[in-house]
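Below is a concrete protein record.
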Amino acid sequence: MAKRKHSSSQASSSAPSKKKGKPTASPTKAPIENDIESSFRPGLFEKDVLKEYNTQYRDSGPYPHAVIPTLISSPLLHSVKNEILTHLSFTAKETDIYRLHQTGDLANLSGLPQELAAKLPSLRRLRDALYSQKFRDYVCAVSGCGPLSGTKTDMAINVYTPGCHLLTHDDVIGSRRVSYILYLCGSEDEPWRPEWGGALRLYPTELADDGTKVPTAEWSRVCPPAWNQLAFFKVVPGESFHDVEEVYDPEDGTERTRMAISGWFHIPQRGEDGFIEGLEEELGKKSSLASLQTKSDCYDRPQPQVVSYKQVDKKGKGKEEDEDDDDAFSPEEIDFLLKYIHPTFLTPATLEQLAEQFAGDSAIQISSFLRNTFEKPLREYIESNDGKPSTWPVAVPPHKQKYLYLQSSSGGKGMTPLEELVTVLLPSPQFKKLIQHATGLKLTSRNILARRFRRGMDYTLATGLSSSSPATEDNPMQLELTLNLTPTTGWESPNPEEEEGMKKKEKKKAKGKGKSRLNPDFVREEKEKRFDDSARTLGGYEMYMAAEDDDPTNDPAVYKAGGDEEEDGVLFVNYPGWNSLSLALRDQGVLKFVKYVSASAKGDRWDLVGEFGMEKLEDGESDEEDDDEEGGEDEEDEEDDEDEDGDTSGSEDDGEYDNEPEWKGCSP
């Protein structure tokens, strides 16, 4: 499986950040209060203007917020943008919750080397103005948030190019009290257009039976970007949910950048007026990011439908659905499975090889799993519904997940091919027996779900096993299945050789273009892009990764990898595709997510997923696996030779059951 490199840093501007990777809010000397007012637009501090914004804030929804159309002196802000583009560099950053380009932390502008500080006078002046006593008092008067720190500054510059986004969160971390964003995109003459995306979107909440506020699946307030516009709101645990809409690709191929200065005002620090001992620690406990691990899953939809394979008879005694799981398939079982599954995967030789691979790797991937007589109508059904409205319910809450889903029903006539897989094949004892033969595990329960991740809308954030998963305290492991059913292409990033080939083709096509009529040998140099989007994908991939540590304050919604170094903790990536099956063992220490599907994708991501409870592995099994891994290069070479010989190709057995020459075998 292909791996993808991601940045280790966290985003600023309303992005949930962490002790590793967030712009560190460091105490600085309080700004000097001289000529602060001249940094802002004329008339901003007049009483009637303040009253207007206070009323706007109080009456706004879904929670109090304010939008000030013009905040900063226009010459100052233009000078700031020029300094940013001339002297600062941006790094592309991506996690499960966002993709963007960002500078380093700007809190310590006062501590920069003199040579660099001399190049950023306007940016420093802006920083001092935003965190001045005068403007902090103004924000307090508008929002009623209480006193704000002038020594703890926290700001960075974010740029969203096409494909960049920030998913739903509430910004509750540490001592944050007010979140703000000051836009530097567009201009007075060429304003940013709402249809370009990049809007700040606010989510309403609903009260659960126990009084917990749960965000709804859809936003109710949209604040499009605009030059010199400030948006801000008080950070409230479980209430201030928001996201940043994806910036969409321009049809004409022109550059489109949504730039903003953003960050937080914090509660007063020790030595400042309004400081309260222990308040920061108390706020930290309310962090919504930590609650992804600790908060009850009872608000999640869908709720798992975990079904035990042990049936209870009328006398209350347990009885296995199939007591012959370890035996060979009966003719009746073969007939049932052959309706759906490629015949090669029902042969003892193939199943034995899959079990051997699974024992060594704890994971297997299989291509062309469904036979063509069933996959053809299934593909027709999915392609005919791709991108269209659906009656399927939406998975929530959005600060954890968002997608359409279908659970197993009672069945009956008139089922679609997809419903037949969810209701008939995957829950069947015959399928259970097949999976047990392919993995060597003893399954005890199941939870089956069909999912559809819509373009420009859907995702899941990185979390561990839920409290309602088939895994138990006695055996905190489960087998996970993903059957990829995405008919569209273009999801996986091209490898370096393919990229080089594409560049050569583009150069060949461009040969002769850009030459001067006066000098045929002159070729205009291509303009170097300021923001590197070379690693951009369409998303939609499913990623497994190891949790960094057991620190409950760590954000499970952010995975970390080492820039240009080897990925840190990434176990494997499963890209969308057609008719491929993956099986993987997962324990409490493994996080998983499905990356947000870009609006630029050719279609939606479709899949079927299953979680299977299992009997605890016997003591010593893992040791045997480790011994096998240390068995030496000779054994590995023998296994490689077997793979190259095509023992799992199924070509010899194929004609026995079906005529399907397109089968591609199983891949690691």
Q: What stands out?
A: Residues 43-289 form a domain with the Jelly Rolls fold (CATH 2.60.120.620).
